[in-house]
Amino acid sequence: MNKKYDIHPDFAKFPTITLRFNALLMALINTLMRLMTFFTKRSFDLTVSRHKVSSADGSAFPVITMTPQDLQQPAPALVYYHGGAFAMPHASLHLENCERYANEAGCVVVFVDYRLAPKHPFPCGFEDCYAALQWTIQQAQTLGIDIQRIAVGGDSAGGALAAGVAQKARDDGLIELCAQLLIYPVLDNTCTTVSATEFIDVPLWNAVSNYRMWEMYLSRYRNTLTPPYAAPTFGELSRLPFSYVETAQFDPLRDEGMHYAESLESHGVSVVRNDTQRTIHGYDGASKSAISKASMLKRIAFLREAFSAKK
């Protein structure tokens, strides 16, 4: 147990892991993760469909749609991007959480299985995520979706993807999103905040892994300016949708999340903040914790508010 920080006992027993993002190691980790997800039997109380979507460069990637039984149509939708340092596949918890968003917020969830670094560094995965939003809009009638009530969301690296997609959708005039749900999001590639420099030995995700992740993800852009939409904290923040920003106290990403929420507010964006205490990055992996349960209810309440406001 890590006694250096005042981490809640529900999360203190998580291991301290420092990742190296070489291709061979990531291939091994990802194979194990996919096997674990495959063998985690789930019985969805939803209508689940799988689709192939084409990205900007012609590559195909999968999306999963989750639709609650007897959902009144046209219904709101959440286009969701999973976390995993831009390099790891979704876990069973991501699917479980999205099942709850669908059933309890009363929406269609479009779950995006985007391409992963280091084999596919930025902008590949981001282009997939944007293409998934475009596809959702194009298929709205078939999917029973109200295009006035489409939100994007994601956790960790997925939060970066969601925030970047929201910025690009605004810049392109693609759609006026009703909300963005950002759960302990990755936002700042400089890794210079207090939390991104001091938390080198916290459980699950630490500052060293965070720095290495950005080197891997932006490998095509070394010694150049940060490309647009890769690190959303440096994007234009005006005219963005109603936003939820969740942070964890002992997370290297804490300060960039807090700063993003404050910057959104300063640009006139309405923000719901959930700055959780005594928590770590990915703390909701302990899904039975009262803190994790409370955060899930806050996310669902936010989505309900965002969807009802656009009716």
Would you write up a description of this structure?
By secondary structure, the chain is an alpha/beta fold. The model has no long low-confidence stretch (mean pLDDT 95). The protein is 38% helix and 21% strand. The protein is globular, with a radius of gyration of 18 Å. Helix 3 links the parallel strand 3 and strand 4.
Task: Present the secondary structure layout.
Layout (H helix, E strand, L loop, with lengths): L8 H4 L10 H17 L6 E9 L5 E9 L6 E7 L10 H14 L2 E5 L11 H15 L1 H4 L1 E11 L1 H16 L6 E5 L10 H5 L8 H11 L25 E8 L3 H13 L4 E10 L9 H20 L2
Parallel strand pairs: 3-4, 3-5, 5-6, 6-7, 7-8
Antiparallel strand pairs: 1-2, 2-4
Helix pairs in contact: 3-10, 4-6
The biggest beta sheet reads: 8 strands, mixed
Radius of gyration: 18 Å
Span from first to last CA?
Answer: 48 Å
Secondary structure tally: strands:
8
Shape, per Cα inertia axes: globular
How many helical elements? 10
Report a brief summary of the structure.
It is built from 10 helices and 8 strands. It is an alpha/beta fold.
